[in-house]
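Entry for the shared binder. Reason: the reviewer on the internal report wants the predicted structure included alongside the sequence.
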Amino acid sequence: MTVIDGTSRSTPATGVPPRPQPPTGVNACTALPKPHPRPGGKDSYTISEVVAFTGLTAHTLRWYERIGLMPHVDRSHTGQRRFSNRDLDWLAFVGKLRLTGMPVADMVRYAELLREGESTFEARQELLESTRRDVITRIAELHDTLAVLDHKIEFYAGARTAPERHSA
């Protein structure tokens, strides 16, 4: 039996195992966050450490800063960027926004609104709601695509297990 969108569907007798489904009921907002490498107060990371922790490139981090997507990054007395745990949290959030397909311009706009303060709550909410609608549309399209793929996979699995046909 396969569960898609909370609906149970029986698995055809083709011998094809059910497709793994993403975990359900996990709330990324209330789940324990990925621990920071260093505790607060001792959280001063070089760009290479942030690259290692986030998987982003140094070029991307500098670009985020240049376009205004990254808030002000502290500098050492020699001018080297020094990132904090708060910066790591922001980069994790930006990573989630990237996964939604949100355009970079909208991410920059969100960052600008955030820096403007509480008076922009409504504008930030509208931006996130618009992105949420886009994500829901994409999920529906992906579910349809998944159904087509599953159908084709079942067809080919059934074709392999069907008795061989002999021509007379």
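Summary line for the report: The beta strands are 2-4, 7-9, 74-75, 81-82.
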